[in-house]
Amino acid sequence: MQRISKPDLVDFLRISDHRRWLCPRIRYASIRSKPELLADLRRHFGEKLVGHVLTFVPRNPRLRLPEIRYDLKKKEFLFDGKFVDVPKRSREKVRVSFRGPVTMTF
User: pTM here?
Assistant: First the structure.
């Protein structure tokens, strides 16, 4: 995991926070150092390097996560074998949807 850039790590943590993959949450503020982020990630994931592809192995087998890989040559994430533009996806606005009638009072 050391070979992944800090911006890519922060974008990955931002996505995992939006999708609520990890509990407790990992704070991904820019003021945190890369070693701190890696230490937090290693609490949740093991790592397996095959060639130039790093696979994130969840330490908790009950977590419902996609297969998460990082291609070190192309510098991109793969979720379930499909390329995901992590920087773009992590900065998308969160969509809010309501099911059924909603009453709001101010």
Answer: 0.77
